[in-house]
Recover the amino acids of this structure.
């Protein structure tokens, strides 16, 4: 059996973003139930030098929209990065899911060998599509969705692994 670049990128990003949307919905409801200003969650961070929840979601969606775009040779959509509410984060995730829905498996066929050039950690790097997806895009995407989950869990939102996985 062959696994396509589409299956390990677009399909995974889509499923995980839908799960992240559920996590955010539970957090929003939990804030209301506990009478906590939603900004407490949206601006929370795990450590002083880490990004807050809102930025974690922004970066996760950046990787989700950027990776398939680069792999397909398309321009990466630019977002404003000005979300400041759960509603706006949900809209950003929905916009990213809509973008992901524009890709077909054929769009990514052969992209494992496409040269991807980008700036990482302040320097220009070049790698093939498979290495980019597996060693840059996916680890960063998972880091930021996991950190978003962890911020909320740390702040008392009753989340579990099943919620993170989207079950």
């Amino acid at each position: 059996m062959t696994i396509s670049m589409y299956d390990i990128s677009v399909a995974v990003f889509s499923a995980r973003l839908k799960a992240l949307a559920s996590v955010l919905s539970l957090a929003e409801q939990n804030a209301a139930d506990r009478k906590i200003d939603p900004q407490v969650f949206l601006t929370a961070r795990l450590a002083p030098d880490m990004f807050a929840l809102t930025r974690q979601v922004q970066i996760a969606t950046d990787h989700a929209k950027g990776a398939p775009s680069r792999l397909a040779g398309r321009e990466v959509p630019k977002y404003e990065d000005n979300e400041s509410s759960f509603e706006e984060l949900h809209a950003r995730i929905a916009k990213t899911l809509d973008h992901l829905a524009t890709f077909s498996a054929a769009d990514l066929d052969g992209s494992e060998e496409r040269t991807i050039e980008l700036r990482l950690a302040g320097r220009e790097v070049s790698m093939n599509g498979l290495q980019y997806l597996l060693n840059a895009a996916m680890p960063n995407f998972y880091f930021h969705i996991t950190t978003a989950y962890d911020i909320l869990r740390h702040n008392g939102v009753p989340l579990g692994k099943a919620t993170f996985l989207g079950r």
